């Protein structure tokens, strides 16, 4: 089967949140350096996989290929704005084989339930950006288990990912990036 690489991308607060209590991205999680990094990564990807709310909230001016998760899809269907997929009715392997028959890089920018789903499917890498020094009260966590007080790092480690060195994307804050890679790539 052609190789498919799955990469997750999130910017989180110190308390591991990706959105505020209303489900929107707060200004403290908007950072130009992180955005530039994320856009460059999307340029290298064959498809972007995201939840319906994120899809609706974020326009797609570059017309990148999107795969939108929604319970409204009967399985996998092509709509004018991308592929719509319901993981309850069609397994990932079948869906991605249809979308990327020759393989390629899959970018996963969330939200929470999408990040959860791909923990089970298996990330090859997770690009975890942290807006250090920020706290979002009652926000939406990057992974559901963060609600139980488990850190994003502990969850990634539990799923077999290992951290590379932390790097600074923006000294203001700072905003840092740690790429967690699947151990299989190290062997
Ligand atoms: N900081 C970050 O890095 C980051 C990352 C991602 C998102 N965000 C922000 O977070 C907010 C949205 O995130 P969110 O988690 O609330 O929503 P979301 O993941 O964008 O969308 C949720 C919707 O996606 C569909 N969905 C997700 N998982 C599914 C599954 N396993 N099976 C079937 N359908 C599924 C459902 O659509 P239906 O209702 O149609 O079934 C669900 O209502 C936005 O403000 C976004 O910008 C921030």
Helix/strand-derived category reads alpha/beta
**Termini gap:** 21 Å
- Ligands present: NADP nicotinamide-adenine-dinucleotide phosphate
Look at the structure and give the CATH class of the domain at 4-48 and 104-186: Alpha Beta
* Cα radius of gyration in angstroms: 16 Å
The name of the CATH topology of the domain at 4-48 and 104-186 is: Dihydrofolate Reductase, subunit A
Mean pLDDT: 96
SS element count, helices: 5
Shape: globular
Low-confidence stretches: none
Mind telling me the CATH superfamily name of the domain at 4-48 and 104-186? Dihydrofolate Reductase, subunit A
Find the count of extended strands (DSSP E, 2+ residues): 12
Just name the CATH architecture of the domain at 4-48 and 104-186: 3-Layer(aba) Sandwich
Describe this structure in words.
With 187 residues, the chain is α/β, with parallel strands linked by helices. It has a domain at 4-48 and 104-186: Dihydrofolate Reductase, subunit A. 23% of the residues lie in helices and 31% in strands. The protein is built from five helices and twelve strands. It has helices at 32-43, 52-57, 92-99, 112-121, 152-158, and strands at residues 4-12, 17-19, 47-51, 66-69, 76-79, 82-85, 104-108, 125-131, 140-141, 161-163, 167-170, 175-182. Helix 2 links the parallel strand 3 and strand 4. It is globular, with a radius of gyration of 16 Å. Bound molecules: NADP nicotinamide-adenine-dinucleotide phosphate.
């Amino acid at each position: 089967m052609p190789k498919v690489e799955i990469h997750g991308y999130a910017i989180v607060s110190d308390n591991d949140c990706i959105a505020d209590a209303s489900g929107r991205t707060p200004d403290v999680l908007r950072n130009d350096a992180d955005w530039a990094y994320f856009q460059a990564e999307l340029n290298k990807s064959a498809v972007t996989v995201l939840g319906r709310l994120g899809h609706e909230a974020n326009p797609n001016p570059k017309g990148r290929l999107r795969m939108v998760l929604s319970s409204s899809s009967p399985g996998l269907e092509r709509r004018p704005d991308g592929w719509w997929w319901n993981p309850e009715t069609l397994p990932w392997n079948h869906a991605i084989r249809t979308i990327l028959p020759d393989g390629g890089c899959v970018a996963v920018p969330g939200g929470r339930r999408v990040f959860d789903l791909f923990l089970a499917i298996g990330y090859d890498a997770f690009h975890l950006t942290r807006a250090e020094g920020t706290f979002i009260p009652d926000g939406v966590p990057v992974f559901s288990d963060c609600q139980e007080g488990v850190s994003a790092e502990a969850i990634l480690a539990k799923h077999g990912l290992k951290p590379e060195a932390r790097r600074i994307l923006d000294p203001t804050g700072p905003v840092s990036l740690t790429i967690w890679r699947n151990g299989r790539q190290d062997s």
